Request: fold
Amino acid sequence: MVNRRDGEMRGRDRDLPAGDGAFARMTRATIKDVSRVAGVSIKTVSRVLNKERYVSDDMRQKVEEAVARLNYHPSLAARTLAGRRSFQIGLIHDNPSPYYIFNMQAGVGQRCREADFRMIVQPCDINSPGLVDDIGALIDQAQLDGIIMTPPVTDVGTALAELFRRKIPVVRVQPGTDLTATSAVYIDNVQAADDMTAYLISLGHRRIGLVTGHANYFASGQRLTGYRQALQRAGIGFDASLVFPGQFDFQSGAAAAEALLALDEPPTAIFASSDDMAAGVLAAAHRIGISVPDQLSVAGFDDTDLAQVVWPALTTIRQPIRDLGYAAADLLLEFGETIERRQLPHELIVRGSTAPPRPMDPGSSRG
Amino acid sequence: MVNRRDGEMRGRDRDLPAGDGAFARMTRATIKDVSRVAGVSIKTVSRVLNKERYVSDDMRQKVEEAVARLNYHPSLAARTLAGRRSFQIGLIHDNPSPYYIFNMQAGVGQRCREADFRMIVQPCDINSPGLVDDIGALIDQAQLDGIIMTPPVTDVGTALAELFRRKIPVVRVQPGTDLTATSAVYIDNVQAADDMTAYLISLGHRRIGLVTGHANYFASGQRLTGYRQALQRAGIGFDASLVFPGQFDFQSGAAAAEALLALDEPPTAIFASSDDMAAGVLAAAHRIGISVPDQLSVAGFDDTDLAQVVWPALTTIRQPIRDLGYAAADLLLEFGETIERRQLPHELIVRGSTAPPRPMDPGSSRG
DNA sequence: TCCGGCTATGACAACGTTATCTCATCAGCC
DNA sequence: GGCTGATGAGATAACGTTGTCATAGCCGGA
Reply:
């Protein structure tokens, strides 16, 4: 009944509305429509769209007018299928910090938008046995043009190997291993921790507690190095009992503070390797009844939103997460497979949580 | 020289490695490879992949084996181009809260993964004149199968109209206008604010300050309604001077607290419509030297990470953001264009920032 | 004048899937 | 025993781009 059959018409024939009148239809405009309106070949439209060489200004203008008039947007799917680019890059992370991820996405997304690329965000679990397969599937399915990874995924050897096997451009943010194997963006964690430690020393502190970060993150070790470096320069001996392992989160910061403050010779300042842990230190101090910064100075790392929201506001190191994301995407888009490195500046931010130690603290017998 | 010409061979002929041996090549496996290995037609493979009817168990098994053996992942681009689905949905937001966005993405992403869909995140600016075009371009380019919007984008009429024009399935999270125009997920903001207010009243508070949210968000007004509703039920008169407008952020919370605490008859409790603002209230109280919760109870809304990180930890309303995201994606995937609504439960979380008011507060002359 | 190289444009195949149509088989029914 | 409808499988044409090749015009040098 509804089965019209007219010989030559088979398959999905949907011949476009001919003539010049009715493009404001529900059907999306295609490159074919644009070529008809502009009065040029499809290939010429494609050339203009892709900014290829050998297009006269005349043609270019005609095409651009037609594109604007039809409000034409090329199909990413068709471009991906026909070409060898997908105009998409992936951001792979296994990071529980909303603040970090939000800003990283903002930076990467910003750069992508500038280049008319799209960012595909892929959370993952570095302990999952399916990690490598998941990454492979993502690349296969979406035909990604490049990958950005954040710690700690940056240092998963098997994942890295899979990416090399596929010869896909990779940029890592703050990588810890195989530093020269891929492009990378990072800050100088050693120097940053050194800066903070030196600042605390300059206030007069001699016993400075350090809460380190999660062992999966190489930055944790780097910050310990910077801490020791500053102590040494100041002629202060390293006391291992002042270093307490944390996990970057609030709870571990609070636990570390309780342990450190219970020492026979407690520190007069605690430097936590993340703002979350610093907030934990603050909470523990409150609980115990130690006032900050009068009796205890507290410093964080990252300068997340959190730093200004706790009381007192945290002295911390500003890590330009958004800029790191932007730079990572920039390296990917500008250099592709060519390996490049870019170091971004950090900044010491002084707020209310640090002050000179109380003079003549009883029990401080050291020179 | 390199120009071999053999008549029929033109264009990009890359004949696949015949035989059965070398698929572990660099070239991705295609559906054609799978069909050859399985010994069935391409279309049958497609049927199995798309879980279509009319495939015998025998065939299905052969195909699945071949897929696994070749580690085959279908090209999303080709699927999108050939079919009428793209297996992608968009998440459009203009929200400055990392916590909110992170959890929303987690929820939506989770549901997408379960359905082998991909989530495309698109931040936007509701005040930008290009908003509607941007959304249109996104849908055109990526051929999205659906859209999820979060406040305040949910209530931008022009954007909504554009989506209707394109007849694309839409789910809105906490919409404020045109409630029945699209599918929606939400919590009962009126009841939630009522619950919190009633709780504060039950502690003995009679003068309860309210810091409202940003006027762009309809939830702000709804929470005011709930607040008034609880007061009325308790027979407490509404005092407009106790209601102070905020913007959902820390700064405005601090400013509101300063204003409220400077009143001749200051409130004994302040209910802020977000945890960020509640943290601001806390900070202002600290600054002024008012202790919480002894002299002032403070309550928030959202139960973000923040709530447990400030001191004292916030009594707040838990808003299941992640679940809202999951539910939104679920509605989209399960019902498509069919309009559905789903309300999720909220929860009153009592922590250390609230307590009964100090007995016999001088200056409290009201009954 | 003719050739070679650069510029500018177009024709057509190819990318890897899904949609449509066709055909074969098989069971149940008049 | 042939008709009908459900089931199972394949051939082939799209989908909307880009890649490859062909070609035409133009300029400069042999």
Remarks:
- Residues 10-14, 30-32, 42-43, 46, 49-50, 74-85 of chain A lie near DNA strand D (CB under 10 Å from a C1').
- Residues 1-25, 361-367 of chain A have pLDDT under 50 and may be disordered.
